[in-house]
Amino acid sequence: MKRVIVACGSGVATSQTVALKVQKILSENKVKANVEAVDIKSLDQYIPHSDVYIAITGGTKSYNIPTLNGIAFLTGMGMEEETDQLIKILK
Amino acid sequence: MQCNQLFQQNLLYYNIDSQNIYQLFEKIGSLLIASEYVEPTFTTALIEREKHFPTGLQLEGITIAIPHTDVEHIREPFIAAAKTTEPLKVGDMGNTDNQFDVSYFFFLGITEPEEQVEVLQYLMNLFSDKRFVNALKAASNESELYEAIQNPVRSEVL
């Protein structure tokens, strides 16, 4: 199953909130994937085994997997575009 | 858990004067330490975290900041809100090169990541309600701020 990871600055609440939201959106759209909130310090370990990275903090590093804007899922602003992109990648 | 109960009238600070966010954090941090919601390590942790991972968010009709620390600095869960007299510069959570002018700060006291994911969801829902955003902006003291928070929040929001 495809794997989506979400990371934020302190791994407490923001990445978990977005992960839950994304999980909900995916099941509403009948798309199967594993969605996990991960600690940003361990991000490099997770990236090779993941299909999409949903970023909440704006680091300058770029990754070789598709990276989406997590803030859009948090605030709802621009969420539709990110959702469309996410579904496209996972299907 | 009723998220709106995390807001308490004594944790609403209206018209706080600060030159910058670090001064604001010192002020609010001291108040929270004194009322034992947080550990004495809270203020330093809050400032450090904000420096590395800013918490400014652009929502519809308003920009806010949601400063918070790791759980070990929090004793009791809470949401403390502060409105500053002047907008302060806050880093954009999603883009470290960008800054917002923010007057509304929501300090999150989170003790259990899983249970309190609801807190963020609750806040995001609250802010997607235009009536709340308008009432928030119109509030001119702590009581009105408190009313604005508790009123849209009757059962329907969660």
SSE blueprint:
The complex is a heterodimer of chains A (91) and B (158).
Chain A lengths: L2 E6 L5 H15 L5 E6 L3 H4 L5 E4 L11 E3 H6 L3 H12 L1
Parallel strand pairs in A: 1-2, 1-3, 3-4
Chain B lengths: L6 E10 L4 H14 L7 H11 L3 E4 L2 E4 L12 E15 L2 E15 L7 H11 L2 H9 L3 H9 L8
Parallel strand pairs in B: 1-4, 3-5
Antiparallel strand pairs in B: 2-3, 4-5
Helix pairs in contact in B: 1-2, 4-5
Offer a quick outline of the entry.
The complex is a heterodimer of chains A (about 90) and B (about 160). Chain A is an alpha/beta fold. Chain A has helices at about 15-30, 45, 70-75, 80-90; strands spanning about 5-10, 35-40, 50-55, 65-70.
Verbal overview:
The complex is a heterodimer of chains A (91) and B (158). Chain A has helices at 14-28, 43-46, 70-75, 79-90; strands spanning 3-8, 34-39, 52-55, 67-69. Chain A has 91 residues and is an alpha/beta fold. A four-stranded parallel beta sheet of chain A has the order 2-1-3-4. The radius of gyration of chain A is 12 Å and the shape is globular. Chain B is α/β, with parallel strands linked by helices and 158 residues long. Helices cover 34% and strands 30% of the residues of chain B. Chain B has a five-stranded mixed beta sheet with strand order 1-4-5-3-2, sandwiched between helices. The relative contact order of chain B is 0.20. The A-B interface holds A 8-14, 16-17, 20-21, 55-60, 69-71, 74-77 and B 49, 52-53, 55, 57-60, 68-71, 92-98, 108, 110, 113-114, 116-117, 119-121, 124, 127-128.
